Here is the input.
Amino acid sequence: RGVQAHRLCPPRGAGSSLEPEERSMEPPAVPEEEEEEEGAVPLSMAPGPVGCQLFGYVGIEAVLDQMKIKTMKTGFEFNIMVVGQSGLGKSTMVNTLFKSKVSRKSSQPGQEERIPKTVQLQSITHVIEEKGVKMKLTVTDTPGFGDQINNENCWDPIIKYINEQYERYLREEILITRKRKIPDTRVHGCVYFVPPTGHWLRPLDLEFMRRLSKIVNVVPVIAKADTLTLEERAEFKQRIQENLKTHAISVYPQEDFDQDPEDRALNDRIRENIPFAVVGADQEHQVNGKRVLGRKTKWGIIEVENPAHCEFPLLRDLLIRSHLQDLKDITHNVHYESYRVRRLNESNQLG
Here is the structure.
């Protein structure tokens, strides 16, 4: 650098004595050839570390606290759908997930539930709060699905409902003067309950997941897994995985949407255990001096939150603790986006 400064200085006697000082205040215009000879690199092209080292505390990390405070004030929305035949424990499973009475099932004992003749969708919305975080939870049940002798096209009302929520969001989004926060009623996850037959998937199960996996995140589970032995459960899960692979059915989490190696490694472990063999219970029992959620039988108590008894903890972690935001992101960026593009293309063709 001293050599470069010496080159830029004019010869003695040329100009006034103040001229070198004035020029020294301006950035020197060094030719590129001289820079290459001296090994100097332009500032804009200088390679640097990915994480630039700071010389003091700036406060960038405070943005996480800002996001947390904002989320705690406004809360967030999560919409889940449960699909399956009657008697598979859908309502009980939802109550177990959120540890509260959030399902449509009445808590009054002895009240019989009439099975509808066609698939009817019923949605119940609750606001639940934990440690200051509010969540507007909407649970959509599908009574009547798969309960009839003729189940042809029984998935049509479900597909229609999911698309209606996309349409509702799209209409709010394309308004000239739209709301600051658009109400989100889109289904973020669909938990499909497979009967614990121990055999292959039924044609109804395959056709439903094939159609629904294209428009919503489908998470298959084996309902009432305590009716199967460990060997039967392992064989049944393997057969279901083969069925899904043979029919090219992509359930959540989808391989195509893994963004980095860490996500892929985590999701690979999850995909190895899908479908989850789950047991639901909304009653507490005393086990070794502790109150636990479980199902009481003559030979013991099945603890639903014990990984040695069932895979309910894996389902809860996937839906709530680790992938809840990812479910919402994929719904918005993939499923809703494909619906939006299709609808706008149809509108342009009509125009």
